[in-house]
């Protein structure tokens, strides 16, 4: 069996997505997501100039060897561009292998471990009252788990607050939007939000929150402690994690469960956090962390330390990543939760998929492969539009973490 062709498809049905399609001499093809939000064209160039030429003529069944070739063969190890490109190849090859086997991908990985994949939705509002209402809307939609983010009094911008309901899209301008951040106002407000949410809805639902890298370790420790009475499912990205040891300080002060890893790209970014039991959930997903092949290694390491998975699932992860992640989630023994931000109807139309939502769970479907396709004719109607993520500055102008 041979790979005969591969191409990159860029489409913007409301936001940019990069998709790799691999064709074979058996007529079976597979697709993988290569979208790196705000840096899309870097991965396009990487795939077209450096990866696709090495794939032609290769046996697509050799997923492991092709992964190692992409990783070791680059010499320049790691990094989001390289690992997103490797992930796209890997996802497309698993898609092909599962289609050849006539199996849904989860079956090929080792079979079903659960009946459905518990997801969390994103509730956000301009202020506390609106955010409380939004959480209620998700409860009414059947969600078992909800992430709450809110506008903050006295602060113009807060992470996670969308302009419309149910859809949130931060990459909103050709050049980065400048937002203003104030940690004092955020720390003053956030416990009040969760107090109000528990007062309104009780303790039966899982509540989550994303600090989005804004805090120092000691500030994160304080927030974790202040949130303990409200029993969060997790506090995410409490502080940047380039220095994985920073989490020792947070861990020493709070029992609020911690989740990290959506910006990680290999197992090496996760290693110390997992081995030192500094986190409870690892947020890596298929496209950002080298595909199913590498994500599986991260999950296996995590399992040794009772760390569970919590795959990133924002709208910048295309339906292709969502589909592949749902097969992974259905199989992985140490599953925790899956993030689920709905894609727009335009995006769903470009990427017809077998996965479905019901009662707070996503189901990957029974189609052979990962169950997601791309309508190339429709994709061609939505040309690339430059869009970058915002940046954050403190009120005095100092650059901060967005
Ligand atoms: O800001 O994926 O938990 N979800 C998140 C996301 C990220 C975006 C960045 O591209 O933090 O909303
Ligand atoms: Co996040």
List strands and helices in order, with pairings.
Blueprint (H helix, E strand, L loop, with lengths): L2 E9 L5 E8 L4 E5 L6 H16 L7 H10 L7 H22 L3 H5 L7 E9 L2 H13 L4 E6 L27 E4 L1 H19 L4 E5 L6 H11 L6 E3 L9 H8 L4 E3 L6 H9 L5 E2 L8 H14 L3 E4 L7 H13 L3 E5 L5 H6 L5 E3 L2 E3 L12 H4 L11 E4 L4 E2 L2
Parallel strand pairs: 4-5, 4-12, 5-7, 6-15, 7-8, 8-9, 9-10, 10-11, 11-12
Antiparallel strand pairs: 1-2, 2-3, 4-14, 13-14, 15-16
Bound molecules: (2S,3R,4R)-2,3,4,5-tetrahydroxy-N-oxo-pentanamide (EZ4) and cobalt (II) ion.
Bound compounds, each kind once, are: (2S,3R,4R)-2,3,4,5-tetrahydroxy-N-oxo-pentanamide, cobalt (II) ion
The figure for the number of domains is: 2
Give the amount of beta strand, in percent. 15-25%
Name of the level-1 CATH class of the largest domain: Alpha Beta
| Proportion of helical residues | 25-40%
Distance between the termini: 46 Å
Précis, in short:
This protein is of the alpha/beta class and 402 residues long. It is built from 13 helices and 16 strands. The chain folds into two domains: 3-104, Enolase-like, N-terminal domain (Enolase-like, domain 1, 2-Layer Sandwich), CATH 3.30.390.10; 109-367, Alpha-Beta Barrel (TIM Barrel).
Describe this structure in words.
- The chain has 402 residues and is α/β, with parallel strands linked by helices.
- The protein has two domains: 102 residues, Enolase-like, domain 1 (2-Layer Sandwich), CATH 3.30.390; 259 residues, Alpha-Beta Barrel (TIM Barrel), CATH 3.20.20.120.
- It contains 13 helices and 16 strands.
- Strands 4-5-7-8-9-10-11-12 form an eight-stranded parallel β-barrel, surrounded by four helices. Strands 1-2-3 form a three-stranded antiparallel sheet. Strands 6-15-16 form a three-stranded mixed sheet, with no helix packed on it.
- Strand 11, helix 11 and strand 12 form a beta-alpha-beta unit.
- The termini are far apart.
- The structure holds (2S,3R,4R)-2,3,4,5-tetrahydroxy-N-oxo-pentanamide and cobalt (II) ion.
- (2S,3R,4R)-2,3,4,5-tetrahydroxy-N-oxo-pentanamide (EZ4) binds next to loops.
